[in-house]
Design goal:
Layout: H1 3-24, H2 30-56, H3 62-85, H4 87-93, H5 97-121, H6 129-146, H7 152-178
Length: about 180
């Protein structure tokens, strides 16, 4: 196990604690929101660090190619679902459900597409700039919600639009591989 994969594993280990912190957060337990913020930022930093180390140090492995997106998808989707359903966040920030549905469906679509492409011809999906931008915006939207920024709903909408565009780009780019 190399250092990049260790970063991905750390992100997966932090995930249950992050989920517990935001699930059990209440006005009486405000410290749990701060714990969730810390864990989210830790996860976002380890995500950036593992990608940087894997590319710069040549530490790209099949395990890392599986763990990195798994950690991203689990953290982002869990956070989006909890934040949009939990009244303390939903009511305070007016978080739109359509963004959560968009993010979730895009991730399901990519996972299924990856599986089909790999099963058909061992092709791997390469991330796009737009897809990476969508993930960064998703992370920013989660941090914004946890920090109670007043214009979080605007950021969530921008995130939703970029996520849709990234999904369409994925379909166009990767869908053409399927028919070759």
């Amino acid at each position: 196990m190399n250092i990049a994969n260790l970063c991905s594993c750390l992100r997966l280990l932090v995930l249950p604690f992050f989920i517990i912190a935001i699930l059990y957060h209440s006005p009486q337990k405000e410290y749990l929101r701060l714990v969730a913020i810390f864990l989210a930022i830790f996860s976002f930093i380890t995500d950036a660090l593992d990608g940087f180390l894997a590319r710069r140090k040549g530490l790209i492995t099949n395990l890392g190619a599986f763990l990195d997106p798994l950690g991203d998808k689990l953290l982002l989707n869990a956070a989006f679902i909890i934040l949009v359903l939990k009244p303390e966040f939903k009511d305070r920030l007016n978080l739109p459900m359509w963004v959560v549905v968009t993010v979730f469906l895009r991730d399901i679509f990519i996972a299924l597409g990856s599986f089909i492409l790999h099963a058909k011809s061992r092709l791997k999906i390469s991330p796009s700039y737009l897809g990476k931008s969508a993930v960064v915006l998703q992370m920013a939207a989660i941090a914004s919600a946890l920090l109670y920024f007043p214009y979080t709903s605007v950021l969530w909408c921008i995130t939703g639009v970029i996520t849709v565009l990234a999904g369409v780009g994925y379909l166009l780019r990767e869908g053409s591989k399927f028919y070759k």
